[in-house]
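Exam revision sheet. Question 4 asks you to relate a sequence to its structure. Input first:
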Amino acid sequence: MELRHLRYFIAVAEEGNVTRAAERLGIGQPPLSQQIIALERELDVQLFHRTGHGVVPTEAGKTLLIDAKRLLNDAQDAFLNAQRAGRGETGHLNLGLTASATFHPIVRSLIRAYRSAYPGVGLTLTEDRSARLLELLADGRLDLALLRPGTHSFAGVALHQIASEQFKAVLPVAHPLAKRRRIPLSALAGEPFILIPRIASPMLHDEVLSACRQAGFEPLLGQQAPQLSSVVNLVSAEFGVSIVPASVGQIHAEGAVYVDITDAKAVTQLALASREADASAKVNNFLALAKHTSMAAARRATEGPAGKNTAPR
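Answer key, structure tokens:
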């Protein structure tokens, strides 16, 4: 028995007439009659009483009609579900992100946009160290990871840049430079730097060191901090200074201030990492939405709050 046989049977049962059913189905009346007879033989039951005006379902026919409609509906649902899954509109997406990535506004915008565009996809967020996120990505336990790769590249991993932001200096309020709006990074040469240990955040750690070296000095490593919020708190306690991604400026600690850095190269990148071999629709949908969100954010930054072009001339 095939699904088309059930469709033929339902049409005949609903029309009560083989000729009208054949017209509805767009086939000839004789072939339709033969299909109904073949179905009765296969089931070894009579499905219709033949009358002078048409056909009437038997008890067996009435029972089959109920189940046939259900089966066809289930089959249609199965086809639609398969198509939606193929388009990445259902299923589950596992997204990893580093602690520093969570502060960037583009991440919040992207997650909101994805949940709105693909409500049928469950989204699970995992926050961890970059190295651990890359392990989970390689093992297939994550589909994508938001991290700051710096100058690193990783075997089997494709990196998709979605944002770029300046570093900011974090200084104790009593620091001689704390009241300045902008400073060159070289102004912090010789100061003890509070950083997250490299083993905890190797990429961000290396970016900070690289920015200092490009500014012409080797940073003096001071007290270590377990996380970004601890960096700011230790600066407020006057253990030293630090530089952090600008979006981390959302962390407020009494006794610490953020100062802009003038160096054009004091920049950190935020990227989405995916497996190079992963061509799943849900991943591609997220990456496409990330690209759109990134372009929109860059356009807003260029236009400024009043919609005017604020790009340097």
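Marking note for examiners. The first helix runs from residue 3 to 15.
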